[in-house]
């Protein structure tokens, strides 16, 4: 079974936890407590490869969107294979925030294979009343194309497009891994330790600067 | 209604009498009709009734010595009927031979009791009818003396039937003002604002209503700062019994308002808790920085919905719920056998020592296993460095966060929460790994059990995760996990041989932990439960404030004090015979007993006013708590 790490980023109350909840539990709560810190959970998807079922397990970090937890974010996106950057199509500044996350990911994550998926949430709100939409699909899509991101608009409330996101990410990552493996086979020795986890010891004091500084 | 005799037996045997006026309240009625024994009726028409055949040896037990009471074999099961609810249509037949009652209010004792099959424990054989009757009478006497509310009910009426009133207690704290619905109607309120006068939070009141108050509070505080160069502490209006308590911690001002007769010290403690919550969310250093250049910063923009929910929750626990964790500054512990707890702590300890690969020394600061039920956390187990412990307030803040974070998340998630423990270090953050070990499930009888591991390192999540799962695997393998996830040893007031007592809270000062019986409520609708808890809380508060001065210092090292709430209005029984409903007279007695080792709060059943009996019961409770100390409290924990 393949395992991938996935992180959700985005402004507060754009629906990150709801998207995860829809994906993992296939349910939706109108009123959710805002996330503090981050929640860690996992879910599997099955993808097809030449009539062969492959199970992909996602380890998901559902992070808090609030500004004051921003300094914790590197811990979650470091070593990630995929990032879901979420914005709310009824909030203009949430797209700006999403773009700044994309920018940060591109700069800070040293992994060319990192899959970034830009997601516009809450399309259900525009079904009855198109005026609620503030962010045009074209604008976001254009931005995604320019930056090489995957893109879709979804609704965690109705479930529209949610499963598809993870399916697509799973397939993408699987392709990447397959390519890697073929190249790896030629020079196995070099890649014996695919990922090296370097952990610098931190002083075990009550670190005042470690959050929201 | 007035508290007409209040005795104060201090070590020096001083006796003080005081009179307290209070409003008259009502919560239960006595129903009397000529042919029927009296019934007690709840306001929602649930009849609370038990019918007890006559007995002669009513108060014999009270004079018996302690041990003989303990020897009584069937007391436990019989006493669990002490609060029986039966609907009108299932009213038990009043023949003396069979008393079968349908206990429908609690699944634990949801069964029909029939006294026909009582076995004599000494022989184990079914007794013949004559002997059975003797035993039965004896049992019923004991039952009666443990639960009857009124002296008259114990004697019985002309039919020889002894009606037993429910264990319901009246409410003596009804506030006329609070029937109205505006901001001023609340007998308690909390305000939090910035030094610039911007509102942050108020327990009651919409923005429009509270903003003028914020202005006034700010002005008052500033006046004292400018003119007296000091911070105002309290405004006490003796005539209306209104108290305003202030806490000024620039850039935050907090004010509590109360007309419940709480002491200034209690209100200050409550404000400290609210302030501590703010700090747990944004630490002091950040707070100062936020306000450094912008003194008119609106903190509400910085806080989250969750923060306001948590503040509201804390306020509600402080004012309406029986939540002694805050008032006593102590934690409640999950009841577990001594050996079980010991083995769990040993297992954790050995894993900590041997598993230093996954969890290097210094990574884990503190660990907890908690049992969570109805928004209440009980400590099952503590992992802590030798000689260190976290402040109860810090832990209570953590509990608040956990409650809300898991409200609509499922248990498979693991959380990584940054939290500032204000009593540990108000300028820094610690990180808590939180995972549910089991979820509440009626079918399997499990409770919500939570593992909390606290570290100072913000990237220690994976280490904590590995350690946590190793720990749980090991506990499961050693078959210890079951003890944590099932609440098998919870007890009720009727499980302790302390007659006439409605409820008690016992705090062991040494362990900063307290114990109280499970609440027994006939009707568990949220509103009823809330009223009931509020009532118990107010009785305890009243007891407490009767023995401390305004600064919260007990007036003596050792204090034993009785409080008597009594209905002084003239109530002519003869007239009332004609009526269908007669109010149960308020005749409540409470006891508070503070020593250097423990604090005991006792609330008796309505109608009990014999101090000797109450004192004897109090002693039994203390004896029981001391005897069961290793079960009721965590004494050492897994130290490393």
What would a concise description of this structure say?
Chain A is an alpha/beta fold. Chain A has helices at residues 16-25, 73-77, 92-108, 124-128, 137-146, 162-186; strands at 2-10, 38-49, 52-63, 82-88, 115-121, 150-153. Chain A has one domain: P-loop containing nucleotide triphosphate hydrolases (Rossmann fold, 3-Layer(aba) Sandwich), CATH 3.40.50.
Relative strand content of chain A: 15-25%
Helix/strand-derived category of chain B reads alpha+beta
In this structure, how is the largest beta sheet of chain B organized? Answer: 13 strands, mixed
Counting DSSP E segments of at least 2 residues, the number of strands of chain A comes to 6
Number of helices of chain B: 18
Tally of individual domains of chain B:
4
* Biggest pleated-sheet summary of chain A: 6 strands, mixed
CATH topology of chain A: Rossmann fold
Which pair of chains forms the biggest interface, and how many residues does each contribute?
A: A-B, 35 and 38 residues
List the helices and strands and how they pair.
The complex is a heterodimer of chains A (213) and B (640).
Chain A: E1 2-10, H1 16-25, E2 38-49, E3 52-63, H2 73-77, E4 82-88, H3 92-108, E5 115-121, H4 124-128, H5 137-146, E6 150-153, H6 162-186
Parallel strand pairs in A: 1-3, 1-4, 4-5, 5-6
Antiparallel strand pairs in A: 2-3
Chain B: E1 2-3, E2 7-10, E3 20-21, E4 29-31, E5 39-41, E6 47-48, E7 50-52, H1 60-63, H2 66-71, H3 75-79, E8 101-102, E9 112-113, H4 129-147, H5 151-155, E10 162-164, E11 188-194, E12 199-202, H6 207-227, E13 234-237, E14 242-249, E15 252-258, H7 264-281, H8 284-292, H9 305-319, H10 324-327, E16 331-333, H11 338-354, E17 364-373, E18 376-384, H12 392-405, E19 414-419, E20 430-438, E21 448-455, H13 461-477, H14 481-485, E22 501-508, E23 513-515, H15 526-545, E24 559-566, H16 573-576, E25 581-583, E26 587-594, E27 598-604, H17 611-627, H18 629-632, E28 638-639
Parallel strand pairs in B: 16-18, 16-23, 18-28
Antiparallel strand pairs in B: 1-3, 2-24, 4-5, 4-25, 5-6, 7-10, 8-9, 11-12, 11-15, 13-14, 14-15, 17-18, 17-21, 19-20, 20-21, 22-23, 22-27, 24-26, 26-27
Helix pairs in contact in B: 7-9, 9-12, 11-13
């Amino acid at each position: 079974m393949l395992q991938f790490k996935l992180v959700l980023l985005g402004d507060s109350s754009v629906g990150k936890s709801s998207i995860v909840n829809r994906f993992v539990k296939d349910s939706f709560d109108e009123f959710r407590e805002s996330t503090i810190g981050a929640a860690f959970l996992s879910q599997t998807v099955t993808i097809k490869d030449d009539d062969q079922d492959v199970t992909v397990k996602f380890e998901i970090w559902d992070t808090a969107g609030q500004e004051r937890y921003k300094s914790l974010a590197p811990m979650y996106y470091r070593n990630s294979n995929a990032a879901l950057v979420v914005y709310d199509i009824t909030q203009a500044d949430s797209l700006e925030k999403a773009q700044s996350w994309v920018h940060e990911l591109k700069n800070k994550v040293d992994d060319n294979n990192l899959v970034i998926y830009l997601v516009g949430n809450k399309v259900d709100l525009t079904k009855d009343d198109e005026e609620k939409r503030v962010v045009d699909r074209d604008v976001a899509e254009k931005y995604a194309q320019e930056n090489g991101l995957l893109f879709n608009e979804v609704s965690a409330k109705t479930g529209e497009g949610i499963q598809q996101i993870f399916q697509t990410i799973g397939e993408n990552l699987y392709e990447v891994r397959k390519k890697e493996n073929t190249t790896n086979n030629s020079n196995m020795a070099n890649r014996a330790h695919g990922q090296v986890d370097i952990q610098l010891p931190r002083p075990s004091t009550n670190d005042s600067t470690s959050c929201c500084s | 209604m007035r508290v007409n005799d209040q005795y104060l037996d201090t070590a020096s045997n001083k006796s003080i009498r005081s009179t307290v006026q209070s409003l008259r309240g009502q919560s239960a009625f006595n129903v009397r009709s000529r042919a029927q024994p009296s019934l007690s009726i709840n306001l929602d028409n649930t009849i609370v009734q038990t019918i007890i055949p006559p007995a002669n040896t009513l108060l014999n037990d009270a004079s018996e010595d302690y041990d003989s009471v303990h020897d009584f074999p069937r007391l436990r099961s019989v006493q669990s009927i002490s609060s029986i609810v039966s609907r009108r249509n299932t009213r038990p037949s009043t023949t003396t031979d069979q008393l079968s009652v349908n206990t429908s209010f609690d699944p634990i004792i949801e069964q029909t009791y029939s006294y026909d099959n009582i076995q004599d424990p000494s022989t184990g054989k079914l007794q013949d009818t004559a002997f059975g009757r003797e035993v039965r009478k004896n049992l019923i006497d004991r039952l009666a003396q443990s639960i009857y509310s009124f002296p008259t009910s114990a004697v019985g009426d002309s039919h020889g039937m002894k009606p037993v009133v429910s264990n319901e207690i009246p409410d003596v704290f009804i506030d006329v003002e609070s029937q109205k619905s505006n901001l001023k109607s609340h007998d308690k309120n909390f305000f939090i604002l910035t030094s610039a006068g911007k509102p942050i939070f108020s327990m009651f009141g919409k923005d429009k209503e509270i903003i003028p108050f914020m202005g006034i509070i700010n002005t008052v505080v500033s006046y004292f700062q400018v003119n007296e160069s000091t911070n105002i502490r309290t405004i006490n209006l003796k005539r209306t019994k209104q108290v305003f308590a202030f806490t000024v911690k620039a850039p935050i001002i907090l004010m509590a308002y109360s007309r419940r007769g709480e002491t200034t010290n209690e209100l200050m403690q409550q404000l400290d808790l609210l302030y501590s919550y703010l700090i747990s969310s944004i630490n002091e250093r950040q707070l100062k920085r936020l306000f450094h250049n912008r003194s008119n910063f609106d903190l509400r923009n910085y806080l989250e919905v969750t923060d306001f929910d948590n503040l509201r929750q804390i306020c509600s626990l402080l004012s309406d719920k029986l939540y002694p964790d805050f008032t006593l500054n102590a934690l409640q512990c999950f009841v577990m056998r001594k050996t079980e707890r010991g083995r769990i702590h040993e297992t954790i300890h050995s894993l900590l020592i041997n598993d230093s690969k996954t969890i290097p020394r210094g990574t884990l600061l503190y660990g907890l296993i908690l049992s969570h039920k109805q928004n209440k956390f009980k400590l099952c187990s503590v992992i802590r460095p030798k000689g260190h412990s976290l402040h109860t307030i810090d832990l209570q803040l953590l509990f608040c966060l956990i409650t809300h974070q898991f409200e609509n998340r499922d248990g498979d998630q693991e959380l990584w929460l940054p939290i500032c423990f204000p009593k540990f270090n108000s300028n820094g953050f610690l990180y808590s790994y939180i995972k549910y070990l089991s979820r509440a499930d009626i079918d399997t009888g499990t409770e919500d059990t939570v593992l909390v591991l606290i570290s100072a390192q913000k990237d220690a999540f994976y280490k904590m995760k590995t350690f946590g799962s190793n720990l749980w695997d090991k506990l499961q393998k050693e078959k210890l996990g079951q003890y944590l996830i099932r609440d098998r040893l919870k007890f009720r007031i009727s499980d302790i041989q302390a007659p006439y007592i409605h409820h008690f809270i016992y705090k062991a000062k040494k362990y900063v932990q307290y114990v109280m019986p499970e609440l027994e409520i006939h009707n568990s609708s949220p509103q009823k439960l809330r009223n009931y808890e509020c009532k118990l809380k107010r009785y305890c508060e009243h007891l407490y404030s009767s023995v401390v001065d305004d600064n919260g210092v007990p007036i003596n090292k050792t204090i034993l004090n009785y409080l008597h709430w009594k209905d002084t209005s003239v109530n002519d029984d003869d007239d009332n015979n004609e009526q269908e409903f007669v109010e149960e007279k308020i005749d409540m007695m409470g006891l508070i007993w503070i020593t250097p080792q423990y604090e005991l709060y006792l609330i008796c059943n309505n109608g009990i006013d014999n101090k000797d009996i109450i004192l004897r019961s109090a002693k039994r409770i203390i004896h029981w708590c001391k005897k069961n100390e290793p079960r009721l409290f965590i004494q050492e924990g897994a130290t490393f």
